[in-house]
Amino acid sequence: MDKIKIIGGKPLFGKVYISGAKNTALPIICASLLTDEPVTIQNIPFLSDIKSLNALLLQIGTNIEEKAEERNGHLTQTITYHTPQPTSLVAPYDYVRKMRASYYVLGPLLTKYGHVELSLPGGCAIGARPMDIHLSSLEQMGAKIEIKNGYVVADIDGRLKGAHVAFHSASVGATCNILMAAALAEGTTVIENAAKEPEIADLIDVLNKMGAQIEGANTSTLTIHGVEKLHGVTHEIINDRIEAGSYAVAAAITHGRVELVNAPAQYLQTPLDILRKTGAKVEMTDTGFIVDAQNVKLVGQDVFTDYYPGFPTDLQAQFMALMCVSEGAAMITESIWENRFMHVPELMRMGANINVHGHASAIVRGVEKLSAAPVMSTDLRASFALILAGLVAEGETIVNRVYHLDRGYEHLEEKFKAIGADIERIKIPD
Ligand code: UD1
Known about the structure:
Blueprint lengths: L2 E5 L5 E5 L4 H10 L7 E6 L3 H13 L2 E9 L2 E9 L7 E2 L1 H4 L9 H8 L1 E5 L12 H9 L3 E5 L2 E5 L8 E3 L5 H12 L4 E5 L5 H12 L3 E3 L5 E5 L7 E4 L4 H13 L3 E5 L7 H10 L2 E4 L4 E4 L10 E2 L11 H9 L4 E5 L9 H7 L3 E5 L3 E5 L8 E3 L3 H13 L3 E5 L2 H6 L3 H7 L3 E5 L4
Parallel strand pairs: 2-15, 3-14, 6-7, 10-11, 18-19, 22-23
Antiparallel strand pairs: 1-23, 1-24, 3-5, 4-5, 7-9, 8-9, 11-13, 12-13, 15-17, 16-17, 19-21, 20-21
Bound molecules: uridine-diphosphate-N-acetylglucosamine.
């Protein structure tokens, strides 16, 4: 239960190296279960979510070889996953409750080994997080699924069968799971209303390199011609658009100038358009972009979260923090998760002026100043929003429960210190 202490008021200047994308690494690591050959994944970020997933794969019987290496100007991880024969087809509760994306083992284990037992992850701070789309699609592909003692128990006779599945929501998780399951199914699967997030295109890229036959990347209709066998591969994952967007807001909110090296601007068009409208300058570079908000009066802008290429829900809290100290009113609407305003009461404790209407919209009226306070992290992205508020608040802010941040922001204090923030981790012994 470490804490982070920030003394606000310093504009940030310099460079931040953006890491590999957590939400791409997680499904791609699980895709390694689709082959008995080694799969080497480059550019994996150093994060506790990756450690949690590795722990689950170890108990499934995967051999894991980790290597730290310098890539694109900074230290990254290359990890080789090799599962010649699993020793367990169970994803136990203790693993899944720590890291919900453990559910990415469902599709691969079922399609390759015919059986899987996955603890249901349950809800979390941001919403109920159902799995109905994953399960009903697998059933349409011939899986027999039962819920027993909190577990999904899934079985197939022979191979999964290709099917035409239409998702009621463009779910990222279900798209990944069904893509992986369908890659080894018999016949052709078509997914209608698939998610189009860049993480999906990266997964399709790696699956196709492994021998899968998937068409339609970056569109909402995916066609998967099942094959009998997939082989090993080496693949470098894309960089993290959400981490890049988060540090972009840090540059803007502190009226600094920060270069985001290796930042995938092409996946951030909607948030960068909004950032520009606030008055911050966004300038492209060869490897990323620069955000410059020196001597700029920031003006509040509305934000509406939506499926990609809409505004990402995973940047909503950070942009809300920015609007708290921008001039005028901004309406923030959350359309993906039903409970994603948990950061609002914490921001209000720091002097923000926010009115939440129902559970989907909030009006933020910009204030001149925030003041430091002890605050509580509630989820990964909300925690970063509190750090942002702390960077501009007068005095010393303490952010409690930082394990949320460690799940998804690699070397957070080091990256902030490198651009001049007064930030420190207070270690609390277990
Ligand atoms: C992923 C991201 C998460 C991000 C979210 C939306 C990972 C590890 N996490 O989560 O950071 O906030 O995408 O961009 O990549 N839904 C159903 N039934 C289902 C599945 C989903 O109704 O079976 C609904 C959800 O309640 C939600 C919407 O679909 O309203 C989107 O959820 P989904 O895209 O599945 O989110 P995750 O993949 O869990």
